[in-house]
Amino acid sequence: MTQLGTLEELPQDYRDAMGRVGVAPLWPQMRNVLPHGGPAPVTRSHLWAYGDVRPLLMRAGELTPVEKAERRVLFLADPGRGPGAMQATSTLYIGLQLLMPGETAPAHKHTPSAARIVVEGEGAYTVVDGDKLPMHQGDLILTPGGCWHDHGHSGKDPVIWLDALDLPLFVYLEGSYAVEAPLQTPRNRLDPSEVEYRAAGLAPVRRRDKPAPVSYPMMRFPWARTEAGLRRLAEHNGGEPVELDYVNPETGASCLPTMGFTAMMLRPGEKARPPLRSSSAVFHVVSGRGSSIINGKTQTWGPKDTFSAPVFAAIEHASSGETPAFLVRIHDTPLQEKIGYYEERAR
Ligand code: 1HN
Fold first, then answer.
1. pLDDT tens digits, 244-295
2. Average pLDDT of 85-114?
3. How far is CA 196 from CA 49, 159, 201, 210, 280, in A?
């Protein structure tokens, strides 16, 4: 590989003149933006142990009333980007949000899309475009870009959920903004996950003048059904790795435009070696224990922990103990497929 010229080789008067005109030479920086042979990820794999983050989040509950926070969140900062980076990987923002009994978080809508995975506590709900979605542990709740959402809590104990947003992408696009509104008055009906999309593979017949809401027909994926589906698949798929994709039940496409979600089950003692993927990922442990070797670093995880993997990471998951482990994988494959880039490499 030829060594390209450096900035220091250029005469000072030339460098000054470029600066005054607002130009700069590409060649000293060419290899930084176009490394040869493969990408040079900035993201560093990290594990955020729930036992470490939870006490700090609970303290935020005492220090900062929800009225002064709007969303009481501690976000997961990628150590590869230095302290306080508002992203866990290149494209994924992840936070842990606390709502205390009786609290509400006001309605807003914004350009980034979000999804929540309920981590702890019962009795909270999210109202999305007028539908009141109950939040039970492990449920995946979508709040797609442009949809109104507010949160409330009529239970007795603190509720904590994990937020995933494509916020870094929207910040990069200079397109991130929100609009606020008063709390929504929910419709008096069950949400579509309990009625229209009760059974996998079945969707209501529609009239031509009342087409299906194809963008986001189902905003809530109850965990009980997801886990049951994984356990059943594990018994009948010939020992293959068990992973289910959260899809739009009308189209089969990813449930959000840029972020993808899968539910994984590792049988007791099972090892899984996924292909190298061009997408980055954050894994959230719903239940069970195990460890994952990510680019040579072992992340040992238990219930409610969250860990990250950069793009093209070499990953090997292993469950430990006598019960299966259940994880949700949050990734940016849908975005990468839309731009014709997504790539997998066999190992
Ligand atoms: C947001 O709207 C929520 O609605 C949570 O709960 C976290 C992080 C950044 C920007 C918007 C929510 C968020 C967020």
1. 999 999 999 999 999 999 999 999 999 999 999 999 999 999 999 999 999 9
2. 98
3. 37, 28, 11, 14, 33
Cβ-count burial 144-179 (b if 16+ within 10 Å, e if not): bbebbbbbbbebeebbbbbbbbbbbbbeeeeebeee
Atom of ligand 1 minimally distant from the CA of 151: 6
- Give 2's pLDDT tier (boundaries 50, 70, 90): confident
Which residue has tokens 């430990």? 320
Those residues with Cβ within 8 angstroms of residue 162's Cβ, 6 or more apart along the chain or in another chain: 94, 95, 96, 97, 116, 117, 119, 284, 306
Question: Where do the domains of the chain lie, and which CATH numbers do they carry?
Answer: 39-345 (2.60.120.10)
For residue 71, the CA-to-ligand 1 centroid distance in Å is 6
Residue 165, ligand 1, Cβ within 6 A: yes
Distance, CA of 147 to CA of 52 (rounded, Å): 32
Q: Which residue's CA is the nearest one to ligand 1's atom 9?
A: 167
- Which residue CA neighbors atom 14 of ligand 1 most closely? 71
**pTM of full prediction above 0.70:** yes
The response to whether residue 71 sits with its C-beta less than 6 Å from ligand 1 reads yes
Give the span between the Cα atoms of 298 and 308, in whole angstroms: 12
**For a pLDDT cut of 70, what percent of the chain falls above it?**
100
Which among 93, 110, 113, 163 is the best mutation to test ligand 1's pocket, defined by most ligand atoms within 8 Å of the CB?
Answer: 163
Q: For ligand 1, say whether the CB of 167 is within 6 Å of any of its atoms.
A: yes
Q: In this predicted structure, what is the pLDDT of residue 347? A: 87
Q: Kindly report the backbone phi and psi dihedral angles of residue 248, in degrees, each rounded to the nearest multiple of 5, phi listed first.
A: -65, 120
Q: Is 338 helix (H, G, I), strand (E, B) or coil?
A: helix
Q: Measured between alpha carbons, how far is 195 from 189 in angstroms, rounded to an integer?
A: 9
